[in-house]
Amino acid sequence: MLARLLAVTIDAHDAARLAQFWADVLGREVVEDAGGTLLPGDDTQLSLRFVPSRAEKVVPNRIHLHLTSTSHADQQQRVATALGLGAAHLDVGQLPEEEHIVLADPEGNEFCVIEPGNAFLAGCGLLGELTCDGTREVGLFWSEALGWPLVWDQDQETAIQSPHGGTKIAWGGPPVAPKEVRNRLRFDLAPAGGDQQAEVDRLISLGATRLEVGEDGSVVLADPDGNEFCVRGN
User: Distance (Å, rounded) from C-alpha 212 to C-alpha 87?
Assistant: First the structure.
């Protein structure tokens, strides 16, 4: 049995406001659940969960979202919608000839609206990709952890995708910036077969490190690059 990726959990000073921003950007509904404020996805589009946190954003996120577009007009409309909801343009050193548009959400989390015709994200849906800082080793780890096949493995860059298709998760390879603080965006897993301890043991055997047990009984682990993630209880 393999772990199931329940959601990408995002720390937020105002979880309700940030969840509503992303609900409006992605065209989803907001659902309150015990783990936070949830934007449910489906088999091909990852769920997003927003949880309250007082931590300040001090470094660029190791994970950020890539949204797709179907035409130049659609790209511009998505950008305009996000800006109208509280996003801002962001300069991360992108070149003038690059066609993607870099933004920050109302709490400074980086995301991109990708240009139309991007072949790598064709057919991936609106939330086309989670792009991550990370080594090839961590891409291989997550492929094994989730049972998602590698769809890219070249020049130390890797990407995986659910067997159902949809959102890809990609790692850009070295150099990887040193990890200084807890990640604001993290993966939230359901245990394989409902057995939390067995799933934790399996993930450790693949290269994860056990960090702590949360107040809700979830087990916090770190992947081979030190990124925190959570295995929830039954």
Answer: 34
**Exposure class string for 56-80: b at 16+ Cβ within 10 A, else e:** ebeeebbbbbbbbbeeeeebeebbe
What tens digit of pLDDT does each residue of 68-120 get? 999 999 999 999 999 999 999 998 777 777 789 999 999 999 999 999 999 99
Q: Tokens for 139, please give them.
A: 């891409």
Please provide residue 148's backbone torsions phi and psi, each rounded to the nearest 5 degrees: -95, 125
Q: Count CA atoms closer than 13 A to 171's CA, side-chain side.
A: 24
Name residue 39's beta-bridge partners: 48
Cα torsion 28, 101, 58, 211 to 10°: value is 50
Query: What is the model's pTM?
Result: 0.95
Widest distance between CA atoms in the chain: 50
- 3-state secondary structure at position 39: strand
4-228 has which fold?
2,3-Dihydroxybiphenyl 1,2-Dioxygenase; domain 1 (3.10.180)
Of 114, 104, 144, 146, which Cα lies nearest the Cα of 8? Answer: 146
Sequence ranges of the domains in the chain: 4-228
Q: Whole-angstrom distance between the N-terminal and C-terminal Cα of the chain?
A: 15
